[in-house]
Each structure stands twice: as structure tokens, then as C-alpha cells.
Amino acid sequence: MRILVVTQYFWPENFRINDLVSEFCCLDHEVTVLTGRPNYPSGVVFPAFRLNPSAYAKFEGANVIRVPVISRGKGGLRLVLNYVGFVMSATVLGVWRLRGQKFDVIFVFEPSPITVGLPAILLSYIMSAPLVFWVLDLWPETLEAIGVVRSRYILKAIGRLVTFIYNRCDLILAQSKSFIPQIRRYCKKEIKVEYFPSWSDATFNFSIVDLAKEVPAKKGVFSVMFAGNIGDAQDFPAILDAAEVLKRNKGIRWLIVGEGRVSEWVKSEVSRRGLEHCVLFFGSHPIDRMPSFYKHADALLMSLRAESIFSMTIPGKLQSYLAAGIPVLAMLNGEGAEIIRRSGAGIATPAGDGLALSSAIMQMANMNTEDRLKMGRAGLALSEYEFNRGTLISKLLSWFDELCVAGGEIQGRFK
Length: 415
Fold this sequence. Notes:
By secondary structure, this protein is an alpha/beta fold. 40% of the residues lie in helices and 16% in strands. It has helices spanning 16-26, 47-51, 76-97, 117-127, 141-145, 152-166, 179-184, 236-245, 263-272, 290-294, 308-311, 317-324, 335-343, 354-365, 369-386, 389-405, and strands at 2-6, 30-36, 58-59, 62-67, 105-110, 131-135, 171-174, 192-195, 222-227, 252-257, 279-281, 299-303, 328-331, 346-349.
């Protein structure tokens, strides 16, 4: 099968789409990726890419077509320019560079922004190829929840854009079950919407992994690790509230692995609150190095702000946490919290409640080792049952096959 993947983010940036493309290639599909120049999350184009762009033109057998983008930089204006710049480059240069090629299906990866769908729609029309859109972030709800957009007029305009994009898809995939009714608000009833969650983007065999040397060894300490994006949605003010409650407890430390738009603010807050001795930062690292960091963790932390939109979200890191077989501490509401409670894989506390999180940490730290191991095994079992990589990708490819069979009907949605 000939598959075109349209994504604003791609290797060497760390996103699950990398793993999906790799699997497509392993299964002998012909894959082309249309993407931008790597600049996430630092906001500047990766130095290694600038030095040798040609080294990033192939990935696991896939052809990678990169178009210019304005790097994310810092601040809202640069982010808007980054989003708009990719749409323009992918629509003009991307379409030109893909001219004459034929694809059986076009797959869009959308963690944010929704605008990544616009060049894909044009390509779908030109190439008469079915369009599959994987929604990992709901617009305009997320923009409103984190305060990026407050104007009702702008939010309505974005809603109309979402409607335009969704109604030109042949299949929409929702990362959580709670996303499905929200997606259906913006599209016609005949548009097919299916539940398609993420899976772990790393494999864990701690018996053959060395401890990350960046993390100082410290016996007798309970280590809580947060791994991933440090952004507004992750509610670091509440996390730091919990750290402040526990800062005099020398048996608790916090390990932060990752970067994001509020990284500098979080570091300044750690300093202001006098938490430097217990909150340690290790920056961003490639996915293949994450097991060596996870090996230091007694518990893995995930959090989302107390907004209705985030209660519908399954955080992308949850699947990796479960696959690691390490107890999970969750400070969030809704579907993600319910998964933790239902599986017995950890402890879930209400979103935004730093005091409750601090209590949960002490509860877990005071457990005996066997009880924590039991939590880890429960998470691993759920990972294998509900978020199995092979099963999910096989299901995705079966949907692709169905769309290819019905390929002659797809142009109807452009009328």
C-alpha cells in the first residue's frame, strides 16, 4: 500500500507518528512523509538538521519531504506563524514536490494544530485518495481551556474551520472514547468516527538497560518522575504545590525529564519556592533513552489541568507509563483517571489538587514493595490488553484497506 503521512511534527522530534511510520515500513508499505523542519519543543531548528538536512531525508525506509517553517520560538505570535507557515509551505511546496505521485491513502497526524488537515485535504482532492485524520487534540476546546484564545468570535471561526476539515475526511480517529461525541458535533453523521488510542512509543526491558548517568543515585529516596511535555495543560503550578508540601521530606524527590513552552517558568518557580534540592531537571532525550531514565522512577507522574476538555483526554504518556510496569500517579479527571482506577495501575487524584497529590505520593511511598509491584503488573497487563501496539496498527491498516476498496466514492465529499 502507498501511504502518504502528513504531519507537522516528525523525527528527530519525539512523536508517536515516528513509531507508526516505522511499522508501516516494516510491513512493506511504501511510505512518504510530508512534514516541516524539526524545531519542537525547543523552538529552534535542530542544529544537527541545519548542518546536514540530507541526513534526515529518509526514515526507516520512508521518504521524508520537508518544507520550510517558521520555528516556534517563544511567544504566541511565533507559534501562530509556525502553524500558518507550515500550512502555506505544505500546500504550495508540498503539493509541488509530490506532483505526479499516487497514494492509496493519506493519513494525518494531529496532536495540534488542526490546520495540518488543510494541505492534506488539497492533496486528497488532487490525488483522489481517501483521507484519514487522527485527532489527538480537540480544537477549539483546547485553545479555550488553556487561554490561548478568549474571543468568542475567533473560537467560532476556528469551529467552522474544524467543521470544514472534519467533513472532508473519510475516517476520523479519536484518541479517547470521550472525544467521539465532541468530534461528532462538528461533522455530518455519515462521517465515520472510530476510537483509536495511542500505544507505548518505547519498549521496556529494564534487565538490559543501564541507569541513566544523568540522574544522581540516591538510596532510600522515593523518586517521582514526570516525563514529557512541560506545557500549560500539564498544570505545573499544582505539581509544584505538591512538591512544596513535601519539600522538607528528604525521602521524596522529583525527576523532570522533558522540555516545553513553560520550562523556564517552571524552573524559576522551583527556585522561587526553594525546591532546587528536591526537584531536578534533565531536559529532553530521545525515546530510545527513556527506559534508562524510567529505571530511576518509583512512580511515574502525569497531570492535566482541571478543564472539561482535558477530562476527555487520555494523555499520550499514559500508554508508555503502563508499558513500563511502574506505578502511576495521576492528577487529572475523566477518562485517563478512570483507566488508572479501573486497572489498579496506580493512584488517581483530582486535577489541580496539589495537596491530594502530595498525600497520594506519601501513600505510595509508604506501601510495601510487593504492593507497588502489583500496581506495575496491573498497568502492564492493561497495556497488553487495551493498548497493544500490534493490535492497534493492524486495525488501522484494516481501515485503510476498507477505504481503498471504497476509493471510487471519496470525491463525493468535495461536492
